[in-house]
Amino acid sequence: MNHPLSLYNTLTRTKQPFTPLESPLVGLYVCGPTVYGHAHLGHARPYITFDVLRRYMQYLGYKVRYVRNITDVGHLQNDADDGEDKIEKYAKAHQLEPMEVVQQYTNSFHLDMASLNILPPDIEPRASGHIIEQIEMIQEILDNGLAYESNGSVYFDVPAYNKDHRYGKLSGRVIEDLLNNTRELDGQEEKRSPLDFALWKKASASHIMRWNSPWSEGFPGWHLECSAMSRKYLGKQFDIHGGGLDLMFPHHECEIAQSQASHNHTDAARFWMHNNLITINGKKMGKSLNNFITLGELFTGSHEVLQQAYSPMTVRFFILQAHYRSTLDFSNEGLQAARKGYLKVMNGLRILDQLQYPTGTAAVDAKADEEIQKLTSELFVPLNDDLNTAKSIAALFNLLKKINSMHTGGFKLEILSEETFEQMRQQYRTLALDVLGLKIEQTTDALTLLEVVLGFYKEAKETKDYAKVDAIRAQLKGQGIVIKDMKSGIDWAYEE
RNA sequence: GGUAACGUGGCCGAGUGGCUAGGCAGAGCUCUGCAAAAGCUCGUACAGCGGUUCGAAUCCGCUCGUUACCUCCA
């Protein structure tokens, strides 16, 4: 397969032509959520971005295996917190089982993802279901002399690793600089170097989530699950690893070190991709700043900064109108503009479905035909340049102008060849629906529409226009609705 | 403090040496019973100051401003 798809690789800081290790197979791993809260707007970005990448690769003919994990263990609140993890902390406050919390937010996450029309991953492994694999990986790193045990916990030996490898190659960090700028944090006594990170943590007495291991009863370190699970399902080396920019250091850096130290592959993933962050008032939207808007709040408009509710497809379109490596600032104006743009694209879809290529022969206008061919051909090209969805959408609008003209009659369909017309129709639909993953949202409420129809029905009865009365009755019956004329007024019921 | 980015018209947001980005908002026109939709036209934008060049939003330098990572975070 020879596609001109180029992707920006954080590892090399350049755009590189993408070729899979074993075409047409593509292994794609994306860091999934830590399920201790509802997903917010910031979470939507990587999952939408990599959903489009996956969809586009499938469109190109690749067979993609997409793995996105659920992190439900580990992730310390902070180093001074005596080993109490976030999920546990929340669970105690609410008197719930930790796994109950995990399940609740996993369900919520899945609902949000489905609303955004994000295709489910092929494999969605949970960290808590892969403790054995993680323990095995720790043992390998210990055997290779790049980790050490300390008081029941196991730490990755960053300085030892850095002798033969470069810790910091992904994020552009230099170990000496890191050492010079280490913050003074508590709970570091067990570590030989402040840069060392935990592979296994011994659980404190109060820690509920705990597993047996050769070293202590405890829980795995907070970078290990991705290394273990990507390896299990995609192999020691695979094609693409994605995630948010804020995971680059230390999370992804540690993943690289763990993979190298355990199974000696220089780069577990050949391409590392990072989406930029969503900002609000110029500041990163994130849990730590407590300035986030959850997807649920966005969809219902129930947050004080929201002037209105924004539908899932509005959110999706908003995100796709910016390139994934640029920051994107949240604003009501931006979302409102996205909403209109999205609806415009959907109206185009409706028009395309209605357009009929005229039967009978007419002279094809070569110039017009060529113009439409050109606009059509520009639809997918930007995606090859590091997934430039913003530019593809612009191309979609350029073609849409012509489609609208065809609809209103300014542009005569018969001056196009049938082939050009079908190409245009098919490509527009494929880009909008299959690759960008937009879908038509139900914007009308059937019951409200029914009230409108019943209004006309009442009017027809009053003017004794029985032909119309009968027609309305018949039409509604066809929809499974029966009208009931009662003394008290007009009512309706589902036909039994 | 270290490292890495960014600063584009009223708003959002592509573009990286010469060729219309696009969307939203605004103005005008066409169409129209009214309206809407749609189409066409318009504003002549690239933080500031220097430099390189026939030519810079795009390359280089400086200044100003903003942000991210360095600690859990998509």
Automatic annotation (TrEMBL):
Main location (coarse class): cytoplasm
Q: Which SMART domains match?
A: DALR_2
In Pfam terms, one family for this protein is DALR_2
What the record notes about the co-factor is:
Binds 1 zinc ion per subunit.
Q: Which reaction does it catalyse?
A: tRNA(Cys) + L-cysteine + ATP = L-cysteinyl-tRNA(Cys) + AMP + diphosphate
Cofactor or coenzyme needed? Zn(2+)
Q: Which UniProt keywords apply?
A: Aminoacyl-tRNA synthetase, ATP-binding, Cytoplasm, Ligase, Metal-binding, Nucleotide-binding, Protein biosynthesis, Zinc
- Motif ('HIGH' region) on chain: 33-43
Q: Which residues bind ATP?
A: K287
* Keyword set includes Cell inner membrane: no
A Gene Ontology annotation in the biological process aspect, one of them, is: cysteinyl-tRNA aminoacylation
What EC number(s) has UniProt assigned to this enzyme?
6.1.1.16
> Where, subcellularly, is it found?
Cytoplasm
Provide the Cysteinyl-tRNA synthetase class Ia DALR domain boundaries: 383-447
A Gene Ontology cellular-component term: cytosol
Name the source's superkingdom.
Bacteria
Q: Which InterPro entries match?
A: Cys-tRNA-ligase, Cys-tRNA-synt_Ia_DALR, Cys-tRNA/MSH_ligase, Rossmann-like_a/b/a_fold, tRNA-synt_1_cat_dom, tRNAsynth_Ia_anticodon-bd
**CDD domains tied to this protein:** CysRS_core (cd00672)
Q: Which GO terms describe its molecular function?
A: ATP binding; cysteine-tRNA ligase activity; zinc ion binding
Q: Which residues are listed for Zn(2+) binding in this entry?
A: C31, C226, H251, E255
The residue numbers the entry assigns to motif 'KMSKS' region are 284-288
- Which family is annotated? Belongs to the class-I aminoacyl-tRNA synthetase family.
How it assembles, according to the record, is: Monomer.
Q: What is this protein called?
A: Cysteine--tRNA ligase
- Species this protein is from: Rufibacter glacialis
The encoding gene is cysS
